[in-house]
Each structure stands twice: as C-alpha cells, then as structure tokens.
Write a structure and sequence with these properties.
6-stranded mixed β-sheet, 6 strands, 40% helix
C-alpha cells in the first residue's frame, strides 16, 4: 500500500489535492482513499490530509500511517509541525520552500539525511493561477518524483475532475501550474 500525508493550512487546497489525486487514481482501477483531519477548521489553521493507494481493498480507515510520501505545501509547517512523524526509512519528502536545499538543511538539519525534494509551490501558484493555493503544483511535483502516473495521463484525467468544479480558464491555469512544478522540482 502506498501512503501519502499532506501538511498544509486550511484553505491551501490540500483536501482538494488529496481527493483529486484519489479521483484520478480510481480511473486506473486502484483502490484509493483521500481524506483530511482538521484542527479548528478555520482558514489558516494547520491541518493534514491523507491518501492511501492499493491494488487490494483498503480496510484501514485510521489517520495513522507510515507515509511513503510527505507533501508539505505550507513552508512554515516544515518548522513547526513534526513532518517526519511515523516516517519509514525511505519516506520521500516534497517541500514547498523558497529556500535552497542547503539553506533548508541548515535550518532543519534532521532533513539532510532524508530523501527531500523542494520547489516553491506558492510562487508557482501565484504565477499561474494568481492565488496562493499550492495544491496543483504539489501534484505536479508528486507526479515527477513518484512516477506513479505519466504526466499527460494525470493532467487529462485531472482536467475532468476539475471540470466539475471550475471554469476552463482556471483549469488551464492549473495545468500550467502542474507543468511548472513538474519541471522545477529538485
């Protein structure tokens, strides 16, 4: 089973990202879960979202997991939340930050020995969708780092998911955000 934990603040799109990823993966025949756990459920409050992906029925519905991927879409949570909680030895981290990896590791030395990828999802979101909602750039980065789906398949399927919720211009901007993140993650 593949497990993903998202760290975000309410209003940054982590729930939409987790559920959108789940919707895309269901089209491949996978069993999936996409859900969230909120603190105070107010915009800006720290929260986590989760995905589970498997070929077999998923019987576990608990929030506890040993994530294969940790997606941090709010840069500040890298420093105030325990993003390494219950990690596996090979957990991969994708972190939104304006810092270089060296600067990030200097400020958070425990990450230096881990598999960490970085990019500035908030800047990408502002440049493309004109809003600080970094969920779709993070999905682009996840597609690149994980290789779980071919990028064009993911985008085409995700367009259908977004088409139920937003106008075409915003869908196009989100596709651009995914492309930018896919190219920029390092």
């Amino acid at each position: 089973m593949l497990e993903i934990r998202w760290h975000a603040r309410a209003g940054q799109g982590a729930v939409t990202g987790a559920k959108g990823l789940a919707d895309v993966l269901t089209t491949t025949g996978k069993e999936v879960q996409g859900f969230a756990v909120y603190g105070s459920a107010k915009r800006g409050a720290a929260m986590t979202a989760y995905n589970r992906i498997d070929s077999e029925p998923i019987l576990n519905h608990e929030k506890f997991m040993n994530p294969d991927y940790v997606l941090v879409i709010d840069p500040g949570l890298t420093f105030i939340a325990d993003i390494t909680e219950d990690e596996k030895p090979d957990t991969t981290y994708i972190i939104t930050t304006h810092l270089s990896k060296d600067e990030l590791f200097a400020k958070k030395p425990e990450l230096a020995s881990k598999k960490v990828f970085t990019l500035n999802c908030i800047k990408i979101a502002m440049d493309t969708i004109k809003r600080p909602i970094p969920n779709t750039p993070m999905l682009g980065a996840l597609m690149k780092v994980s290789g779980m789906l071919e990028l064009e398949f993911f985008k085409n399927t995700f367009k259908e998911v977004l088409g139920k919720k937003m106008p075409q211009a915003l869908i196009d901007a989100n596709m651009l955000a995914i492309d930018h993140a896919y190219a920029q993650v390092q």
